[in-house]
Amino acid sequence: xxxxxxxxxxxxxxxxxGNGPTLILVEGAMSSxxxxxxxxxxxxxxxxTTVAYDRRGRGGSTxxxxxxxxxxxxxxxxxIEAVGAPAVAFGMSSGAMxxxxxxxxxxxxxxxxxxxxxxPLMPDAALDAARQYTADLAETLADGRRGDAVALFLARVGMxxxxxxxxxxxxxxxGMEAIAPTLAYDDAAMGDxxxxxxxxxxxxxxxxxxxxxxxxxxxxxxxxxxxxAIPVAAFEVVEDQTHSFAPDAVAAPVRRFLATRLQ
Length: 263
What we know:
By secondary structure, this protein is α/β, with parallel strands linked by helices. 43% of the residues lie in helices and 18% in strands. It has an eight-stranded mixed beta sheet with strand order 1-2-4-3-5-6-7-8, sandwiched between helices.
Protein backbone atom coordinates (compact mmCIF):
# COMPACT_ATOMS: atom_id res chain seq x y z
CA UNK A 1 0.00 0.00 0.00
CA UNK A 2 1.17 3.51 -0.85
CA UNK A 3 0.24 6.59 1.13
CA UNK A 4 -0.59 10.21 0.39
CA UNK A 5 -0.67 13.07 2.88
CA UNK A 6 -3.83 15.15 2.89
CA UNK A 7 -3.84 18.88 3.57
CA UNK A 8 -4.56 18.43 7.29
CA UNK A 9 -1.85 15.79 7.71
CA UNK A 10 -4.14 12.76 7.50
CA UNK A 11 -2.47 9.75 5.91
CA UNK A 12 -4.50 8.21 3.09
CA UNK A 13 -3.65 4.63 2.17
CA UNK A 14 -4.13 3.65 -1.46
CA UNK A 15 -3.20 1.12 -4.12
CA UNK A 16 -2.56 2.21 -7.71
CA UNK A 17 -2.69 -0.48 -10.39
CA GLY A 18 -2.48 -0.34 -14.18
CA ASN A 19 -1.43 2.13 -16.83
CA GLY A 20 -3.02 5.21 -18.29
CA PRO A 21 -4.96 8.19 -16.96
CA THR A 22 -5.66 8.32 -13.24
CA LEU A 23 -9.00 6.79 -12.20
CA ILE A 24 -10.01 7.33 -8.55
CA LEU A 25 -12.45 4.77 -7.07
CA VAL A 26 -14.53 6.19 -4.22
CA GLU A 27 -16.26 3.75 -1.86
CA GLY A 28 -19.57 4.29 -0.09
CA ALA A 29 -20.55 3.94 3.56
CA MET A 30 -19.03 1.18 5.69
CA SER A 31 -16.69 0.17 2.86
CA SER A 32 -12.91 0.15 2.94
CA UNK A 33 -10.55 -0.65 0.10
CA UNK A 34 -11.80 -3.84 -1.47
CA UNK A 35 -15.44 -2.74 -1.56
CA UNK A 36 -17.63 -2.52 -4.64
CA UNK A 37 -15.85 0.44 -6.21
CA UNK A 38 -12.40 -1.06 -5.65
CA UNK A 39 -13.45 -4.29 -7.32
CA UNK A 40 -13.61 -2.41 -10.62
CA UNK A 41 -9.83 -1.99 -10.59
CA UNK A 42 -8.95 -5.31 -12.28
CA UNK A 43 -11.54 -4.64 -14.97
CA UNK A 44 -10.26 -1.14 -15.75
CA UNK A 45 -6.53 -1.28 -15.07
CA UNK A 46 -5.64 -2.07 -18.69
CA UNK A 47 -6.79 1.41 -19.71
CA UNK A 48 -6.35 3.40 -16.48
CA THR A 49 -4.12 3.75 -13.48
CA THR A 50 -6.84 2.73 -11.05
CA VAL A 51 -6.58 4.12 -7.52
CA ALA A 52 -8.45 2.30 -4.75
CA TYR A 53 -8.12 3.92 -1.34
CA ASP A 54 -9.28 3.81 2.24
CA ARG A 55 -11.34 6.86 3.03
CA ARG A 56 -10.20 8.63 6.21
CA GLY A 57 -10.97 6.73 9.39
CA ARG A 58 -10.95 3.38 7.62
CA GLY A 59 -8.40 0.62 7.02
CA GLY A 60 -4.95 1.97 6.20
CA SER A 61 -5.90 5.64 6.50
CA THR A 62 -5.74 7.76 9.61
CA UNK A 63 -8.16 10.49 10.67
CA UNK A 64 -7.96 14.03 11.95
CA UNK A 65 -10.74 15.86 13.78
CA UNK A 66 -12.81 17.90 13.44
CA UNK A 67 -14.34 16.39 10.31
CA UNK A 68 -15.87 18.22 7.40
CA UNK A 69 -16.71 17.13 3.87
CA UNK A 70 -14.01 19.53 2.68
CA UNK A 71 -11.42 17.32 4.37
CA UNK A 72 -12.51 14.30 2.30
CA UNK A 73 -12.38 16.43 -0.83
CA UNK A 74 -8.81 17.33 0.12
CA UNK A 75 -8.09 13.60 0.47
CA UNK A 76 -9.19 13.00 -3.12
CA UNK A 77 -7.10 15.95 -4.26
CA UNK A 78 -4.07 14.52 -2.44
CA UNK A 79 -4.51 11.23 -4.31
CA ILE A 80 -4.71 13.08 -7.63
CA GLU A 81 -1.54 14.98 -6.73
CA ALA A 82 0.24 11.75 -5.84
CA VAL A 83 -0.79 9.72 -8.89
CA GLY A 84 -1.41 12.25 -11.65
CA ALA A 85 -3.76 15.02 -12.76
CA PRO A 86 -6.27 15.41 -14.20
CA ALA A 87 -8.15 12.35 -12.98
CA VAL A 88 -11.41 10.70 -13.85
CA ALA A 89 -13.35 9.01 -11.07
CA PHE A 90 -16.06 6.53 -10.11
CA GLY A 91 -18.17 6.92 -6.98
CA MET A 92 -20.34 4.28 -5.33
CA SER A 93 -23.54 5.09 -3.41
CA SER A 94 -22.87 7.83 -0.83
CA GLY A 95 -19.31 7.91 -2.17
CA ALA A 96 -20.86 9.13 -5.41
CA MET A 97 -22.15 12.20 -3.61
CA UNK A 98 -18.74 12.84 -2.07
CA UNK A 99 -17.24 12.58 -5.55
CA UNK A 100 -19.82 14.96 -7.02
CA UNK A 101 -18.95 17.54 -4.36
CA UNK A 102 -15.25 17.02 -5.08
CA UNK A 103 -15.78 17.55 -8.80
CA UNK A 104 -17.64 20.79 -8.13
CA UNK A 105 -15.00 22.03 -5.69
CA UNK A 106 -11.80 20.99 -7.49
CA UNK A 107 -12.75 21.84 -11.05
CA UNK A 108 -11.92 20.18 -14.40
CA UNK A 109 -8.17 20.69 -14.03
CA UNK A 110 -8.24 18.07 -11.26
CA UNK A 111 -11.29 15.91 -12.11
CA UNK A 112 -12.29 15.83 -15.77
CA UNK A 113 -15.16 13.29 -15.79
CA UNK A 114 -17.06 11.17 -13.26
CA UNK A 115 -19.32 8.14 -13.10
CA UNK A 116 -21.81 7.93 -10.22
CA UNK A 117 -23.43 4.60 -9.30
CA UNK A 118 -26.78 4.74 -7.46
CA UNK A 119 -26.28 7.88 -5.34
CA PRO A 120 -28.95 7.33 -2.64
CA LEU A 121 -30.82 10.62 -2.96
CA MET A 122 -34.44 10.81 -1.83
CA PRO A 123 -37.64 12.43 -3.11
CA ASP A 124 -39.27 15.13 -1.00
CA ALA A 125 -41.62 12.66 0.69
CA ALA A 126 -38.68 10.76 2.18
CA LEU A 127 -36.63 13.71 3.42
CA ASP A 128 -38.17 13.72 6.91
CA ALA A 129 -36.93 10.15 7.40
CA ALA A 130 -33.48 11.21 6.19
CA ARG A 131 -33.38 14.08 8.68
CA GLN A 132 -34.44 11.74 11.49
CA TYR A 133 -31.66 9.32 10.55
CA THR A 134 -29.13 12.17 10.73
CA ALA A 135 -30.35 13.15 14.20
CA ASP A 136 -30.42 9.57 15.49
CA LEU A 137 -26.98 8.81 14.07
CA ALA A 138 -25.47 11.90 15.69
CA GLU A 139 -26.98 10.91 19.04
CA THR A 140 -25.74 7.31 18.99
CA LEU A 141 -22.23 8.34 17.98
CA ALA A 142 -22.12 11.11 20.58
CA ASP A 143 -23.08 8.53 23.21
CA GLY A 144 -20.35 6.16 22.03
CA ARG A 145 -22.88 3.52 20.98
CA ARG A 146 -21.07 2.42 17.85
CA GLY A 147 -22.98 -0.84 17.51
CA ASP A 148 -26.28 1.00 17.61
CA ALA A 149 -24.98 3.41 14.96
CA VAL A 150 -24.16 0.49 12.67
CA ALA A 151 -27.57 -1.06 13.34
CA LEU A 152 -29.22 2.26 12.56
CA PHE A 153 -27.43 2.43 9.22
CA LEU A 154 -28.29 -1.17 8.33
CA ALA A 155 -31.95 -0.51 9.10
CA ARG A 156 -31.77 2.64 7.01
CA VAL A 157 -30.63 0.65 3.97
CA GLY A 158 -33.39 -1.89 4.42
CA MET A 159 -31.93 -4.76 6.43
CA UNK A 160 -34.60 -6.49 8.55
CA UNK A 161 -34.26 -6.28 12.34
CA UNK A 162 -33.75 -10.04 12.67
CA UNK A 163 -30.89 -9.95 10.18
CA UNK A 164 -29.30 -7.02 12.03
CA UNK A 165 -29.49 -8.98 15.29
CA UNK A 166 -27.71 -11.84 13.55
CA UNK A 167 -25.04 -9.50 12.23
CA UNK A 168 -24.28 -8.33 15.78
CA UNK A 169 -22.96 -11.83 16.51
CA UNK A 170 -20.98 -12.21 13.29
CA UNK A 171 -17.17 -11.98 12.99
CA UNK A 172 -17.62 -8.88 10.82
CA UNK A 173 -19.34 -6.84 13.52
CA UNK A 174 -16.24 -5.58 15.41
CA GLY A 175 -14.78 -4.25 12.17
CA MET A 176 -18.04 -2.49 11.40
CA GLU A 177 -18.10 -0.91 14.85
CA ALA A 178 -14.50 0.24 14.38
CA ILE A 179 -15.44 2.45 11.42
CA ALA A 180 -18.89 3.44 12.69
CA PRO A 181 -17.85 7.10 13.20
CA THR A 182 -17.35 7.39 9.45
CA LEU A 183 -21.10 6.88 8.96
CA ALA A 184 -21.38 10.54 9.92
CA TYR A 185 -18.93 11.38 7.12
CA ASP A 186 -21.13 9.72 4.51
CA ASP A 187 -24.21 11.34 6.00
CA ALA A 188 -22.52 14.73 5.68
CA ALA A 189 -21.67 14.03 2.03
CA MET A 190 -25.35 13.26 1.43
CA GLY A 191 -26.44 16.65 2.80
CA ASP A 192 -30.21 16.52 3.34
CA UNK A 193 -30.48 13.67 0.77
CA UNK A 194 -32.18 15.91 -1.79
CA UNK A 195 -30.56 16.80 -5.12
CA UNK A 196 -28.02 19.50 -4.09
CA UNK A 197 -28.83 22.25 -6.56
CA UNK A 198 -25.95 24.43 -5.39
CA UNK A 199 -23.51 21.62 -6.14
CA UNK A 200 -24.87 20.38 -9.47
CA UNK A 201 -24.85 23.87 -10.97
CA UNK A 202 -21.10 24.08 -10.32
CA UNK A 203 -20.34 20.80 -12.11
CA UNK A 204 -18.98 21.58 -15.57
CA UNK A 205 -17.56 18.21 -16.53
CA UNK A 206 -19.17 15.20 -18.24
CA UNK A 207 -21.07 12.99 -15.81
CA UNK A 208 -22.55 9.51 -16.26
CA UNK A 209 -25.00 8.25 -13.66
CA UNK A 210 -25.71 4.54 -13.46
CA UNK A 211 -28.36 2.42 -11.79
CA UNK A 212 -28.89 -1.32 -11.72
CA UNK A 213 -31.84 -2.52 -13.75
CA UNK A 214 -32.72 -4.98 -10.99
CA UNK A 215 -32.45 -2.35 -8.24
CA UNK A 216 -35.66 -1.01 -6.68
CA UNK A 217 -36.99 2.31 -7.94
CA UNK A 218 -35.82 4.20 -4.85
CA UNK A 219 -32.20 3.27 -5.62
CA UNK A 220 -32.57 4.32 -9.25
CA UNK A 221 -34.12 7.66 -8.27
CA UNK A 222 -30.91 9.50 -7.40
CA UNK A 223 -29.11 8.53 -10.60
CA UNK A 224 -32.05 9.64 -12.75
CA UNK A 225 -32.55 12.93 -10.91
CA UNK A 226 -28.88 13.89 -10.93
CA UNK A 227 -28.61 13.22 -14.64
CA UNK A 228 -31.58 15.52 -15.21
CA ALA A 229 -30.13 18.27 -13.01
CA ILE A 230 -26.45 18.32 -14.03
CA PRO A 231 -25.69 20.47 -17.10
CA VAL A 232 -23.63 17.81 -18.94
CA ALA A 233 -24.86 14.40 -17.80
CA ALA A 234 -26.32 11.13 -19.06
CA PHE A 235 -28.15 8.31 -17.30
CA GLU A 236 -27.81 4.63 -18.10
CA VAL A 237 -29.32 1.44 -16.70
CA VAL A 238 -27.01 -1.52 -16.17
CA GLU A 239 -29.28 -4.45 -16.87
CA ASP A 240 -29.70 -7.24 -14.32
CA GLN A 241 -27.58 -5.45 -11.69
CA THR A 242 -28.44 -4.29 -8.18
CA HIS A 243 -26.65 -2.12 -5.60
CA SER A 244 -24.29 -5.09 -5.21
CA PHE A 245 -23.13 -5.28 -8.80
CA ALA A 246 -20.93 -7.61 -10.84
CA PRO A 247 -17.71 -5.69 -11.57
CA ASP A 248 -17.56 -6.71 -15.23
CA ALA A 249 -21.13 -5.56 -15.86
CA VAL A 250 -20.53 -2.06 -14.48
CA ALA A 251 -17.01 -1.74 -15.87
CA ALA A 252 -18.33 -1.90 -19.43
CA PRO A 253 -20.31 1.38 -19.39
CA VAL A 254 -17.65 3.03 -17.22
CA ARG A 255 -14.94 2.12 -19.71
CA ARG A 256 -17.04 3.18 -22.70
CA PHE A 257 -18.01 6.55 -21.20
CA LEU A 258 -14.57 7.49 -19.96
CA ALA A 259 -12.86 6.40 -23.19
CA THR A 260 -14.96 8.84 -25.19
CA ARG A 261 -14.10 11.66 -22.78
CA LEU A 262 -10.36 11.04 -22.97
CA GLN A 263 -9.99 10.94 -26.75
